[in-house]
Amino acid sequence: MTATSLDQIISLCKRRGFVFPGSEIYGGLQGIYDYGPLGVELKNNLIAEWWRANVYERDDMEGLDAAILMNRLVWKYSGHEETFNDPLVDCRTCKSRWRADHIHGRCPNCGSTDLTEPRPFNMMFSTQVGPVADSGALAYLRPETAQGIFVNFANVLATTSRKLPFGIAQVGKAFRNEINPRNFLFRVREFEQMEIEYFVMPGTDEAWHQQWLEDRLRWWDSVGVPRQRITVYDVPPDELAHYSKRTYDLMYQYPDLGPQEIEGIANRTDYDLGSHSKDQASLNLTARVTPNADSTARLTYFDPERRQHVVPYVIEPSAGVGRGALAVLCEAYAEEMTRALPAEKLQAVTDALTAFLKSVGRSEKLHPEARDAMLAYGEAIGNHLPERLPEVEPLLAMPGADTIELGKKLRGQAQPLIDEHFRTVLRLRPRLAPVKVAVFPLKRNHDAMVETARRIRRQLQLELGARTVYDDTGAIGKLYRRQDEIGTPWCITVDFDTLGEGKEPALTDTVTVRDRDTMAQERVPIADLPLYLREKLR
Ligand code: GAP
Fold first, then answer.
1. What pLDDT is recorded for position 95?
2. Which residues are near ligand 1 (CB < 6 Å)?
3. 335: which strand partners?
4. Considering only 82-86, 110-114, 411-415, which range has the smallest mean pLDDT?
5. Distance between Cα 166 and ligand 1 center (Å)
6. Nearest residue (CA) to ligand 1, atom 25
7. Separation of 259 CA from ligand 1 center, angstroms?
8. pTM for the whole thing?
9. Nearest CA to 217 among 232, 200, 205?
10. Do 395 and 370 meet the contact criterion of CB atoms below 8 Å apart?
11. Residue 528 neighbours by CB under 8 Å, 6+ apart
12. CB-based contacts of 274: which residues, under 8 Å, 6+ apart?
């Protein structure tokens, strides 16, 4: 199972501290989010997997971390000053602002057709470098990390003696003043990109483009975003970015949003290295570039076989970290029944839902659209009880549901059953899980048990080099449930037997390890834990 609506993920992220709206206590800042204690771990783990697969496990890649602020000329010659624009229209009726190519001549907010003519709007955030605000101080927050790689091409080549083909990988922040940031982490104004610029001999570019498409699909699969959930969109010529000869967009099937771009894989030709080079006329460029009188370098590669300088072509796989993390969460998310519901309890909750929906149908307070939506959703849940019982929560959170008195009764019937018979689980790949191991003492007022549990946690932290936590704030069942919800693959419980105080002396110095996915429990000697877990984390 995967998430069936984006709201499930948004609610989990907020509830458990994956993601918070930015500057929330001041009313937020549109299109800006902060990653909380679990979100930062998930995001870092996703980036680490990308870096491992693309930098460490390949023989043809170098890493880079270029500055966010760059000389303005970078953005002049990259083409972003001139072309990184969207056509915008304003609605004269409700004063909202829209992308002209998204709205078909009608304001989506108020329906008015009284719109201004489209005007270009540059999506780069500008700032100034130094204390004097003249035009010479103008700088931009980078809208893509890629340019930091292009302008360092000669530096990397000179210091690593690489031969074509080779790539440079970089992860970092990018900023775009999106007109309509929306859909949670999907379209935001500050985000992170994981980008590779892969430099190849001209003429081999198309084959490498196909190769990277395959490699990237395989990588998404390895982090839990399966190939069959991604469609490849061969971007038609009139939609291509100004630098691209051909682009494949990987479109992940997000709940509610449908297929949306998670990564773009572009053939940028010799456009960028050519654009940032001096003496362009001597370089046999195939791309159309702006004449460059400012660059001090020729960004070329000396081909030892042909004994001549060439401007490499570039294949660019460019993925968003936030969009990636969101897809990973959607795929991992499941709500599942852990124990069968007794027939009489199922009947009682079915009756409460039926009565609630009857009352919704009769309600005069509800807007007809809200009423119909609630009825349709409620009936869908009713047709799939008990499996969809946990969806009573989002049903009761729908607009206007709080005006239906019988909602309280339904919640009262459903909530204890949800708590007792269902769990939310994130089936994250263990390497992506924010917390790898949680350690509990069976009794929190037993000093030796607490001390042993804390010692195991510390030891595993060192041995695994990943986040482990200690928790004693509830009964074991509740603690398991909490860890399931954040995707912790293993929970360890220290009990009387561990201390040699139980009925089974043979279990002294062993603990219970409980598996998130199967919920199976195994007794493992404390001394074997590091090896046992390291094997599983591979
Ligand atoms: N260097 C090429 C480039 O920047 P892009 O298709 O504009 O290409 C690459 O962006 C990736 O960055 C996208 O596939 C997406 O994952 C992510 N991305 C772009 N704009 C974003 C936004 N406003 N919010 C979140 N992620 C975004």
1. 82
2. 144, 146, 176, 178, 187-188, 191, 193, 195, 261-264, 316, 318-320, 322-323
3. 424
4. 82-86
5. 23
6. 187
7. 15
8. 0.91
9. 232
10. no
11. none
12. 280, 283, 285, 287, 289, 299, 311
